[in-house]
Design a protein that fits this description.
Length: 156
């Protein structure tokens, strides 16, 4: 009863305390990733960093260690590449329990069995394992399949 009386007498203080409690709860429930991954994602602009952090927090909770193999890289021949826009990341994954490593040479079926491509799609991300168009990088032509690649798509 004393708390209700205080709240009526000091509405601004009550609101300030309520806001502080909400902020603490949000802070404690924010997506968390390993320190190593966090340092790599720290280079990204805020929006992209938050999106990738949310995604990889779930991936790590699924029992994977995320090894970043490529983040930002320059455009080639002046053409804006998704990596040069800080909207893509390439990773290898290690399943902690089985020791299985998921790399570029891992089959599409094996990647799909992890549930990670489906997670990426559910978070409005593109998975390079769905790519079918060949691409050229540093003078070498690669098949479209690029399962280590996750991106946010080109900005509108």
């Amino acid at each position: 009863m004393k708390l209700q009386h205080y709240a009526r007498q000091h509405p601004r203080a009550t609101v300030a305390v309520a806001v502080a409690v909400v902020l603490v709860v949000l802070y404690l429930n924010r997506p968390m990733v390993s320190a190593t991954l966090s340092s790599k994602l720290g280079l990204y602009p805020t929006h992209e960093r938050n999106h990738f952090t949310s995604f990889f927090a779930v991936v790590e909770k699924m029992g994977y260690v995320v090894n970043v193999t490529s983040t930002w890289r320059p455009s080639i021949a002046g053409e804006p590449a998704i990596h040069s826009l800080w909207r893509a990341i390439d990773v290898n994954l290690l399943h902690v329990t089985t020791g299985k490593v998921y790399t570029k040479s891992t089959s599409k079926a094996e990647w799909l069995a992890t549930g990670i491509p489906q997670l990426a799609r559910s978070m409005n991300m593109r998975w390079g394992g769905d790519f079918t168009t060949p691409y050229v990088y540093k003078g070498t032509t690669y098949a479209g399949y690029d399962p280590i690649h996750f991106d946010l798509g080109y900005p509108a």
